[in-house]
Design a protein that fits this description.
The chain contains eight helices and seven strands. It has 251 residues and is an alpha/beta fold. The chain has a single domain, classed as Rossmann fold. Strands 3-2-1-4-5-6-7 form a seven-stranded parallel sheet, sandwiched between helices. It is globular and about 50 Å long. The mean pLDDT is 93.
Length: 251
């Protein structure tokens, strides 16, 4: 048995959407566990900034909906390090409009960003994970996949589809030693939703509906990603790990 099954020493990975929010926290915690992580985002300056704060970090600036650029980034990581072990698909977009307000074109755009891009990137990555029994595909979903929010139909649908894709990857790539899992966070306090954290109605919801009576910290979601990327999770496959302090039991 490996002395520290949670160590990611020697592993190499890519975290999409890692210039801020949950994605950045995941990149930081994976690095802390010993992995070399490629930082991704559309803004080169932000990618450079985050990469400069993490030991051994690589830079992978590209738009996840640009499939050719995404696959090229994986090839570049492999050429620089000689391996590719971990992919975390963390990019997520929202369109907080009801069914009567959001048209089909905008619905498709959100699915392209949240679901299709993750499918394409994971499909490319899974073919280029040369090391047996250490390949890890991790997708950031949401509890909205199971309990849709009233004004978020496109987002909820995109995350539900993502979780179905996780199970498909599980079946197809398990014989190669690659696992595919998702993390479904609840309310996570990031710079992107700081306005909601202070909203009186949201505060009341958090107090009455979340058993822990608080928002999650990004690193609490990131710790789940470290676990799923590690040898300790080698027999966990096709699973959706809920990280919501019990909120989904009370919806």
């Amino acid at each position: 048995m490996k002395e520290n099954q949670f160590s990611l020493s020697g592993r190499v990975g890519l975290v999409t959407g890692s210039t801020g929010g949950i994605g950045r926290a995941i990149a930081e915690e994976l690095t802390r566990a010993g992995a070399r992580i490629a930082i991704n985002g559309r803004n080169q300056e932000k990618v450079n900034l985050v990469a400069s704060t993490l030991e051994g970090a690589l830079q992978a600036p590209f738009d996840v909906v640009d499939h050719a650029s995404a696959e090229h980034a994986i090839d570049k990581i492999i050429s620089e390090t000689g391996r590719f072990d971990i992919l975390v698909c963390s990019v997520g977009s929202r369109d907080r409009r009801s069914i009567s307000e959001i048209d089909a074109a905008d619905f498709q755009d959100l699915l392209l960003t949240n679901t299709v891009s993750a499918y394409q990137l994971a499909r490319a990555a899974s073919k280029k994970m040369p090391n047996p029994n250490v390949g890890r595909l991790i997708f950031i979903s949401s509890i909205a996949s199971l309990r849709p929010f009233r004004s978020d139909p496109a987002y909820s649908a995109s995350k539900a589809a993502l979780e179905s894709i996780v199970r498909s990857f599980c079946y197809e790539f398990a014989p190669l030693g690659i696992t595919a899992n998702a993390i479904a966070p609840g309310f996570v306090a990031t710079e992107f939703n700081s306005n909601l954290v202070e909203d009186p109605n949201i505060k009341e919801f958090v107090k009455t509906r979340i058993p822990a009576q608080r928002w999650a910290r990004p690193e609490e979601v990131a710790n789940a990603a470290v676990f799923l990327a590690s040898d300790a999770a080698s027999y966990i496959n096709g699973h959706v790990l809920t990280v919501d302090a019990g909120l989904s039991t009370n919806l």
